[in-house]
Amino acid sequence: MDVELEQLEGIMATCERISIAVKPDGVQRGLVGDTIEHFEQKGFCLVGMKFIQASEDLLKEHYIDLKDSSFFTGLVKYMHSGPVVAMVWEGLNVVKTSRVVLGETNPAGFKPETICGDFCIQVGRNIIHGSDSVESAEKEIGSWFYPGELVDYKSCAQNWIYE
């Protein structure tokens, strides 16, 4: 095995996956393609995607950490109000980097050239969800996708993205 291939396999072995969902407001506003473009331009690899109407049970499980908050019921109702596009992206440090790509959830912190900064005005309609840690990503991916729905492949662009 040559040195370049060994280095690439070492990098890819440390890759993470993240769960990203374009929420009903993002779907209704036609921002799915713009969202995908942000992640593709960053160099991440799309390994799973589905367009679904999420069940209330799935949404309650997804937002279980927020079950005691005053906005939990409204959040579940909003997320159930229309279809979502659930995705799994893979890449080196994808969770930490994606949080920067997504931007702040608070409108006061919205920065240009982030998804929230470019497309959002209010926190309650922030068009996108992204896992906040590797652990939560694993849990969320397991809730939204069956193992056979994720594709394991190596993009031909990897040599142009990773040293």
UniProtKB/TrEMBL annotation:
Single annotated GO MF: nucleoside diphosphate kinase activity
Alphabetical list of SMART domains matching this protein: NDK (SM00562)
Pfam (any one): NDK
E.C. number(s) listed in UniProt: 2.7.4.6
UniProt entry tagged with the keyword Transferase: yes
Reactions accelerated catalytically: a 2'-deoxyribonucleoside 5'-diphosphate + ATP = a 2'-deoxyribonucleoside 5'-triphosphate + ADP
Residue stretches making up the Nucleoside diphosphate kinase-like domain: 15-152
InterPro entries referenced in this protein's UniProt entry, alphabetically: NDK-like_dom (IPR034907), NDK-like_dom_sf (IPR036850), Nucleoside_diP_kinase (IPR001564), Nucleoside_diP_kinase_AS (IPR023005)
GO biological process: CTP biosynthetic process; GTP biosynthetic process; UTP biosynthetic process
Keywords tagged on the record: ATP-binding, Kinase, Nucleotide-binding, Transferase
Cofactor(s) this protein requires: Mg(2+)
SUPFAM superfamilies, per database record: Nucleoside diphosphate kinase, NDK
Record has Secreted as a keyword: no
UniProt cross-references to CDD domains, sorted A to Z: NDPk_I (cd04413)
PANTHER family: NUCLEOSIDE DIPHOSPHATE KINASE
NCBIfam families: PRK00668.1 (NF001908)
Sequence similarity: Belongs to the NDK family.
Name of the protein described by the UniProt record: Nucleoside diphosphate kinase
Species this chain originates from: Erinaceus europaeus
Name of encoding gene: LOC103118203
